[in-house]
Structures are given as C-alpha cells and as structure tokens.
Write a structure and sequence with these properties.
Helix content: over 70%
Low-confidence stretches: none
Number of helices: 3
Order of helices and strands: HHH
Shape: flat
Oligomer: single chain
Number of domains: 1
Number of strands: 0
C-alpha cells in the first residue's frame, strides 16, 4: 500500500513540474533552481512521511536542538 502512495505522490510532483516548468522563461535561471530544489525537498519529505508516519515534527526537532541553549541561558 505504501508503494501506491509513493507512486501517487511522485506522479503528482511530476505533473506539477510538467505544468509549471514551461511557464518559466529561459532567463529565469534562479527561479528554476529554487523551484527544483524546493520541489525535490518537498517530495523527499512527503516520501519520508509516508514511510515513517510517526516521525517527529519540526517543532520537536527545534526543541531538541535548542534545549541545551535554553538550560544554559536560564542559569
């Protein structure tokens, strides 16, 4: 069942890219790079969430990273 979800998400990202990419003009190199990077990052995160649905969210990551700093500043 996970394979069907992964294939569906991949197809969605491919169709989204096929729709948006031709609308960007040839001189929009930075925009194309940013679009590609954000699309690949979003695709990877969506695949991770399909495979590991109990993965901690961004706020839990931030709390884990900054907890030592908070304890240091409270002293």
């Amino acid at each position: 069942m996970k394979w069907a979800a992964i294939m569906g998400v991949t197809a969605l990202f491919v169709f989204m890219t096929m729709y948006e990419w031709p609308k960007m003009k040839g001189q929009m190199r930075r925009e194309k790079t940013a679009f590609a990077a954000l699309t690949i990052l979003a695709w990877a995160l969506s695949i991770l969430l399909i495979c590991y649905p109990d993965m901690p969210g961004p706020t839990q990551w931030i709390n884990a990273i900054f907890k030592p700093l908070v304890t240091f500043l409270e002293k």
